[in-house]
Amino acid sequence: xxxxxxxxxxxxxxxxxxxxxxxxxxxxxxxxxxxxxxxxxxxxxxxxxxxxxxxxxxxxxxxxxxxxxxxxxxxxxxxxxxxxxxxxxxxxxxxxxxxxxxxxxxxxxxxxxxxxxxxxxxxxxxxxxxxxxxxxxxxxxxxxxxxxxxxxxxxxxxxxxxxxxxxxxxxxxxxxxxxxxxxxxxxxxxxxxxxxxxxxxxxxxxxxxxxxxxxxxxxxxxxxxx
Length: 226
Description:
- The protein is of the alpha/beta class.
- The protein has helices at residues 26-37, 41-49, 53-58, 65-76, 82-91, 97-106, 120-129, 131-137, 154-163, 178-186, 197-208, and strands at 12-15, 22-24, 93-95, 111-116, 141-143, 171-175, 190-193.
- The longest helix has 12 residues, at 26-37.
């Protein structure tokens, strides 16, 4: 997809989801799953999130939400429905309207996209989980599994930039994790570490401030006629 030229060298601004556009309360998700299944919260932490399952899912091992959920249930020994899995995620998420407003304002200056380290079921559930985010980002909501690589692997950033027809040097990654910021820099993107909506506005203002062209030494002011 060909892109339009953005402001001050930025054609595409990429936002992380968890703890940027929406806070994620991981212990609350574990408690919800425990209440729904009768298993201890630690059970899900051990069998799912502290195993190799999530990293592999985030890197594209399970290309559909149904395949992801089947493996989730196999590892955890549960029979969660799609709706239950999504509800557990939803209960743990709190939208940050101020950061979403930053994204909405930035959209007037360049294209925007979302990139989260997640699998297929999370991507498929985004309209239910964060409808306001989907309304702002549209079809530019991406999860890492789509690119068969996960942050901070430089390839995921390059592949997303290519998907949007953008030179990596003209893309900006906004992420709360220092290692993901570094991964974007290693991929040739520009990057900002997210430290709250107010700080993000300041950082973007400094980054996007138009630079005045340097005055050539031989340039002179036009003479005034007497």
